[in-house]
Automatic annotation (TrEMBL):
<keyword id="KW-0808">Transferase</keyword>
<dbReference type="GO" id="GO:0004015">
    <property type="term" value="F:adenosylmethionine-8-amino-7-oxononanoate transaminase activity"/>
</dbReference>
<dbReference type="InterPro" id="IPR015424">
    <property type="entry name" value="PyrdxlP-dep_Trfase"/>
</dbReference>
<dbReference type="GO" id="GO:0009448">
    <property type="term" value="P:gamma-aminobutyric acid metabolic process"/>
</dbReference>
<dbReference type="InterPro" id="IPR049704">
    <property type="entry name" value="Aminotrans_3_PPA_site"/>
</dbReference>
<dbReference type="InterPro" id="IPR005814">
    <property type="entry name" value="Aminotrans_3"/>
</dbReference>
<dbReference type="InterPro" id="IPR015422">
    <property type="entry name" value="PyrdxlP-dep_Trfase_small"/>
</dbReference>
<keyword id="KW-0032">Aminotransferase</keyword>
<keyword id="KW-0670">Pyruvate</keyword>
<keyword id="KW-0663">Pyridoxal phosphate</keyword>
<dbReference type="GO" id="GO:0009102">
    <property type="term" value="P:biotin biosynthetic process"/>
</dbReference>
<dbReference type="GO" id="GO:0030170">
    <property type="term" value="F:pyridoxal phosphate binding"/>
</dbReference>
<comment type="similarity">
    <text>Belongs to the class-III pyridoxal-phosphate-dependent aminotransferase family.</text>
</comment>
<protein>
    <submittedName>
        <fullName>4-aminobutyrate---pyruvate transaminase</fullName>
    </submittedName>
</protein>
<dbReference type="InterPro" id="IPR015421">
    <property type="entry name" value="PyrdxlP-dep_Trfase_major"/>
</dbReference>
<dbReference type="Pfam" id="PF00202">
    <property type="entry name" value="Aminotran_3"/>
</dbReference>
Amino acid sequence: PAFSSAQSRDINYHLHPYTNAVAHQKIGPRIIERGVGIYVYDEQGNKYLEAMAGLWSVAVGFGEPRLGEAAARQMRKLPYYHTFTHKSHAPSIELAEKLVGYTQGRMSRAFFTNSGSEANDTVVKLVWYYNNALGRAQKKKIIARQRGYHGVTVASASLTGLAANHRDFDLPLPQMKHTSCPHFYRQGRPGETEEDFATRMASDLEALILEEGPETVAAFIGEPVMGAGGVIIPPRTYWSKIQAVCRKYDLLIIADEVITGFGRLGTRFGSEAFGIEPDIMVLSKQITSSYQPLAAVLLSPEVTAVIADHSAALGTFGHGYTTSGHPVAAAVAIENLNIIDERGLVENAAATGAIMQAALLELAGHPLVGEVRGMGLIAGVELVADKESRRPFDPLGATGAAIYERAQENGLIVRGIQDTIAFCPPLIITPDQVADMVALFRKTLDEVHASMPG
Ligand code: PLP
């Protein structure tokens, strides 16, 4: 194809995350120029309904002027200051207070980083520091899950349970272990009920803890609903059973709410939806609608007490970033969270989310569709070669990729996770826009189905 100047320069100078560099030279980038509401526009002026909110993150939609204004105000007043060694500033204080306030006493401190990966990296160090403070230096292993996603730093990629993040990087680190993925449609056994399956998931966790030695296992980390691993909704009682095992062996429970935080599941936090009582919560993405890079780690009063009070004995908590609690990012987060509250976007995620789930479920009879799953404003539609036997396509992922490409030609941005098509639109989406989104998807499914041999 003939590339535009921007496309050629991108190919020549820019190494992209999560991109095959050779394929990139052939395909070229789609250059997104601007965004309004749930839509983005490329440099040719093509309009796309952004059904993934970017990377699961633009809660208030694109082009929200209040966020630009909040950033500009803070830029003019104090564009930067750090939060090391007893320094602070109003935006970081207000944001920490606001986040703790949302948890209604469950959490008592916020630590700031720039990204979800750094936040999970911070969590690993906090867990290790915590156990050192308690004089149990051998209790350091962290159990995550196959298909879980927690980011890409050396420690957070080790928590992630996806081969692509381990292969070629000599990961995971030896302290990180992985237990079963709670995907009933794929992992459930013949004749097993969802309840039995949830019980089996908890026994798998217990078996792993016993195999490793409970005195060596410090924590369990999970996303309330898995996102990047394929939008996996666990059975209703999964989390309470997992939680009981964690409490039995004195494991900290870490809820990675980087996607589920701030309304995605129709509740402010995913933990509320599943009755999770985390010791540590991780927040990012929708915290600023990703208009600015920012993440937060929230600590329960018990963890705070150990970390804060024992730091006198252990010394300074030797961890933090130049831009931890960045004032501009924090000011944008505060304004963004105010918009989420004022516009009732958590409630909209529940109400419009129910409409989206019902509309996607109507596709369950489509010849390509194996499972439709979701909650609030997040969903996954898993495509299969054979509905009856649930046989996946071979090669896995080619159909998902074809849908992804064809959807873009139809003006719809989704995500293909192997052959699961993910939906995670901005929380401002309306019922009419949901109908448009699902109609574009149905059209795409039909076109790809019609082009298949046989
Ligand atoms: N945790 C979860 C649940 C995520 O979905 C992501 C990103 O998709 C991360 C952590 C990593 O965040 P970041 O890409 O900001 O490093």
